[in-house]
Amino acid sequence: MERLKSAVPADIRRAVGEGTARDLPSTTSLLLDFFDGVPLFHQRLFFCFLLSKVISELTDPELALCRKDKGRAVELKGRGNACFSKREFEQALGFYSQALRYVPISSDGNYEILVPTLYVNRASTMHKLGLLKQCLRDCNRAISVSSNYAKAWYRRGMVNASLKKYSSAIHDLKVALSMEVTSSGKSNIEQELKLILLKHRNVNEVGRSSSDCQDAGLPHTEPHKVVLECASTPNKGRGMMSLNVISPASLIHVEDPLAAIIIKSCRETHCHYCFSEAPADVVFCPLCTIPVYCSKECQEQAVGDISWNQDTSLEFNSHHLVDNAKLGLTSTRCKTSNSKQIAEHMHECGGAHWAAVLPADIVLAGRVMAQYIDKRLLTGKSSAISGPNLDLVHHYDIDSPTSKLESHIYAIVLLLCLQKYYRSDLSWREESLSQLVLLICQIKVNSIAIVHMKSVDGGQELTESKGYSTASDAVMCSVEQIRVAQAIYMSGSLFNHSCRPNVHTYFHSRTLFLRSTEYIESGSPLELSYGPQAGEMDLLERQKSLQENYKFSCRCSSCSELNLSDLVIDSFCCPRSFCLGAVSESTCYRSEENFVHVSLNGSAVCKLSLPDVSKVDEDMEKVGKLFFRNDDADLKIDPGYCMSCRSQLDLSSVVATLDRAASKINRFKELIVIDDVSEVLITNALQSLEQIKKLRHPYSKALAQAEDKIAEAFAKVGDQEQARKHCEASIKILEKLYHPKHIAIAHELIKLISIKLCMGDKAGAAATVTRAEAIFLLYYGPDVQRVLPYIDALKIAVSG
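Structure tokens predicted for SET domain-containing protein:
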């Protein structure tokens, strides 16, 4: 990219950088004229050479990093066999999976015997590891590829027996017996049949699961009668509001994405279609080695049909449509069309690997563009493609000159990559490039991060089958959000941001759900969080994040009115022992108009209104007493001065001491992980915590984090009483920064539950589970068990 940018003449770079969205037809034409024109011959030739080289590297099957390779598949199979022989089953599993990734389809469009052999080998390995459901799925895959493969039927019979599905096991073993050609093999199968027939007489059958997909489940049937409207306001522009009263925990919107793409860090760990964690029996794309799928269903949804044409070359059936599994899009006034969805990986495959190399925003733009092209071709419309006209903001005009030039060049690269796939099926109009530049900008601003919740117990994911039974389970369970993908939701993009949102966003698979978290009056705006929230970040940090990522300054209630969280989140203690006032590194002014102006190190000033004195709670009055006095018309509080009594603190000395203390606590936590802890180390960590307590404000986030780290460390060394004490101290601080029913508190309560269970305090744990579940129900409603399955595990643990 850097070489391509540097090859563009300075005058064109300047025109692009200074241009607006209205100038795009002109600036894209300039770039195309340079690409095709005669002037500046040598510079143009160099740019064309670079561009041609880039496109060749991205799309040439012979150069592709993602191409299939039978030789490598055979080599990996051999390494798997060697590990299996040495009973190194986990390593064998990895090698068999990688062999399946590289094995190609044969010249007649069918799989060779190598594929069913690999499936059976992997199934045998998973059987040894106790992964019975995964083993069964691989047996089914082997049989679907080669129905006369005796070993596949035998292995399926054996795993069905392990699953106590004896009727199925007997059937499978009888089929295997009829296909087996060796006498030793027949004798072995007959012996197994006798044993299973005996068990079958005394044991009931176990049911069969209906789907392989990791996120498969019952369709969402919860009614939602909320009527939404897209309206414009002077401060925030276009946004969503309700036309009726909304109760807390009401489902207000459900939507599948227009397009979605997995993020690079999750490519090997999560399904590329439903974004669930990849199981042991992953499925790969038939034509390339990039995507990983959790099931055949997800693979077919993403890849579509594959056909074998008369020229004996493998190709995607570009006319295959996958039914869009809409889950009842809400009755908004700005619905997306209820249409069919084109299989999203088709245009990226067939030997090219550009989708694995280009940034996710660009690949996502390619998926939107490909969907638009395929729908036009399917409906018989003109093959001259201009580009989709999404009704979304783009902020192109305020992008940096560098970003504008990158968008132009990425648009050219993407168009050429798509053209390589579609070939003669379409022609490009002159406005195609300018439309694609805007599309890239729209995706940067409007794409939504898909996050999945994960509960980690001692480094492992906590599932319904796990619980706590003894003090030896000395771990502190924690809940974290995993960002797995980004997507475009046409209606979801119309909800505005607030740092104190009244709508909670969550996902099941790739489906977006929005649920109210409080009582909302008719005609009120419906606002979710784009990431920054009050209590998690201070005011200036939130404003900076939103400006950098979304190009706007937030004026929500938390960013326009002085509040407790922003006063204390990064503050220090007043040097006077009985003063609760906060000491900040920021400069604060109060003007005659009852506004507070906040700036840090001379940075941009944030203007906040003072709340009505009657609404100021006791904590806030004690923390910032000076702001609420009437004897000072104009007030200035410099960095290092208490907001309540004006006592001064030596900030440079305090910050240095706090840095040393935080470093010791972090070191303590690191050594606990590797079981290298001593009494001296524990004493030093507790002394460091006391230093932080003396210097940080009692409601500061840094103190909450220090208490949490100490709690986690004590939980790992088995001192659950100390872990409980410090975990509760952390939660009390977070309740000040957020509010007692915020979802962040529920996540912290999960830690406290695990500690109480390890202490044997099931009554206390049960009470905390009830409190956490009440908060989760507010944010997830009836979906709480589906999105957070570990809640059931905790319920079982406290009642067992």
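The longest strand covers residues 478-488.
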